[in-house]
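Task: complex structure prediction.
Instruction: return structure tokens for all chains below.
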Amino acid sequence: MKKLLAGAAMALMALGGNAAQAQDYPDRPIMMMVSYGAGGATDFQARIVTMTAGNEDALGMPIAIINKPGAGGRVGWNWFATQAESDGYTLAAYNIPHFIAQSIKGGVEYSADTFEPIANWGADPAVFVVAADSEMTSMEDAVAYAKENPGKLTFSGAGLFVGHHIAALQLEKAAGVKMAYIPTKGGGAAAMKAVIAGEVMAGVNNLSDAFRAQEAGNVKILGVFDLERNEFLPDVPTMKEQGLDIDNASVNFRGVMVPKGTPQEVIDKLSATVPEMFANERVAKKMKAGGSPMHIMTREEVQEMWAARQATLEELLAGL
Amino acid sequence: MEFIYYFGDVFAPVSFLLLLVGTIGGLILGATPGLSPTMAVALLIPFTFHLEAVQGLILLGAAYTSTVAGGAVSAILLKIPGAPANIATTLDGHTMAKKGEGARALQLSFLASAVGGVFGVLLLIFLTPLLAQWALAFGPSHLFWLAILGVTIIGSLDSASVVKGLLSGCIGLWLATIGFDDIMGAQRFIFHSSLGGGINIIAALIGLFAIPQVLTMFAKGRRNDNIEVIEVKKHAIMDAVRELLSRKRAMAIGTAVGSIIGLIPGVGGQIAGLVAYDQTKKFSPEREKFGTGHSEGVIAAESANNAMVGPSLVPLLTLSIPGSPTAAVLLGGLLIHGIFPGTDLFDNHPDVAWTFINSMLIGQILMCIFGLYVAGLAAKVAQVPQSVMAAVVLGLSVFGAYSVQSSMGDVYVMASLGVMMFFLERFGFSAAPLVLGLILGPIAEANFIQGSMIANATDGMGTYFLSGALNIVLIAIVIASIAYSVVMELKQNKAQNEEASA
Amino acid sequence: MSRTQHIIPSGIVFLVGCWIAWVSFTQQPSEAFLFPRLISSAFVALAGWTFLKALMGWSKVGNGVTRTMALNLAPGLIVSLIYVFWLAKSLGFYTATSLAFFVLLSLYDPAPHNQVKSWTKRAIITACFIAVMYGVFGLLLKVYTPREILF
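Output:
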């Protein structure tokens, strides 16, 4: 009954307008929407980075994760853009380049302008993998094979208009060859299975998953689609080092955002506290143990990154 | 034999308590209409944050095994399968319950689950490296043929008319194409915003099975329930054990089919029960009794869906590839503690790996004991007044459909499909083939398109889909299955004609 | 059961089939609609056959909907639809469920409507059900159901 009354009181307060709320924000638990299923990489990381939200030095209120999976994230972000309340109590996790690529392709109700970034917590670059027994040992081998057999090098990735697809497009463009990108249903795991089972010759996958698969002795990682080498894989060269002009446009950045129209005071408060919350030691330890690379960015940095991505992706996807 | 060293760890006080809690809680959650195993496991994830790695996994593993078995309770008593794995159980199980044999059906289903489940876990313990190779052997072309094999079952499944059965299957296949397509990037049949993510299988399952039950109860009107309360016959557990032992064929086919199909990433769990049911029916001399409350049907379906649990974890534990949504959630549970499945797990954390696997073995047995204990009580559900039952199931359906992915759209889809199914059922259409179509459609399509993409880049369609030992074996089974159905249909018609003329 | 009864559902299914076929064959890209085209062709063929059988009065299976059934069903169906499609979202899950549950119980529970005792019993059953639902979904599983104006 107490909960019921509290709920009623909460609802009344919600009707009371945003102005009074902003000062003592947050005064009730916050929810954060993740547009992928429970157990996926985004969900798993979101749960770790928000686990200290209830601490006094962070937000002082816990963050509950709500999953709204479907259609490669479109369902969740559509909901967030159109139905989520912009009172600061509904946050969402973003995945770049996914949602920007989807908005450029069209058919969705969001774009980089409908959301306000708060902070970034992670950056999971795409990597190029081949099965452990493959003859290819570097990107040079792969490109050479693709040049000899145009359109015949099959490589898997998780669906269309996601980081893997962007990486694949960049690779084809930089190497000036045609290859056969095979999108899979069922995310990165299905794409990785296709590589390990030898259904395809190679694959683009998440660094975190590929790192695990390499540890287990199932795949070899030939290159990283990023500007610098990664701390998890200090021995694997970047694409640029191997003579392919590819930047970090496909890196899967994960972070927190709110809908447009959220009061400025709330945004300020969140963008001041959330990056520090991510920097918590316990969070860093858990993330490292799970093989998930962290990359904390503030609101300003994320805004710049979004704008840069918008431009690169528009150019890259123009031909599709 | 390494696993025996770690048996003691399962009985450490906290671990064993969690195993008990997970098993009993899983049974209850599984028995609740509208809650699926994946959901139960996903919803438990936050709890495992606060536990040690082994303890968290024990909780998740116990919940997984017992929700699959618990799903049989609502499938038998209310004709509402908790998960796709339990669809086949409704076919004979619910008919038995209507005859007042709910207790017997439940006892058989728990016993069969335990036998199948223990066998599956033993396979996981002893044959993991071998099974991992087998799990990888299924590429797009093989999965495509496997899905086609499933499609051949559609016509003969729980339908008075073959044409209407096939038509129900087509409706399901079509419903499965709705939504954004990941492989071709197309938007198909999205005529309402709730459909953007496609039709969620669990929400559809709730709608297609639970809502027609609710509406049927409404249609009986406001009358005195005492007149038609089903008398629940008591049934001794020993009798159930004896019956199970006399049904060796159903037991063996169910367990074998469940373990083999359970291995295949992405397909297994969903169709293991239905394929096992169909195979048992084909091999049984009492085939005409299936669908009329025949115990072989329950035994085959339930042994298959629990036998699948162990093997379905093989790709996850050895190759770090989650083969099912539930396995994906378990992967999250491992990663959060910094443990990577694969060689790392067995070499560096054998205590975690083996204690987890052992706990599933013990969990199966605990599940069986508790299941048998409550079977008699649970069967009394049939005596709950219809008016209360209808309202309870409706409420649970709404909450259940919503909590699958926190989406109001799923609730609308659930209700619309349910109302449609109620009226279609009144005219000879049926839900089981429709759901089978809904499950198989995406498997067949995605693998066909993917396979043809690979084929076009490599050896061409003909070679890719039609050559190779596994492809040929699967095609042979598909042809045999169709031929068998045709022959049986002709025989039956002949028999009927003779009867009519005699 | 009358022929008309069979004609209506099979006719609707047939029309839906035709619509699906029309959409599948007109939309692009054709690769993405390959399967829908195959499925809808089979769909239209089967639905056409079923419709024809219904027209000729050859349909045998199914029990149809009788007048008493329809009359019994109507109030419950209407209450359920209002609950699912409107109240649940606008009032909040728990409030809407309690309301719908109580109304449905009152409609279908055979106990007399003019006794305080039977009304109390209905109220108690409703309260118990909601308490269990809140315990399972709200507290144990932590599902964040729509709260909206009430709860």
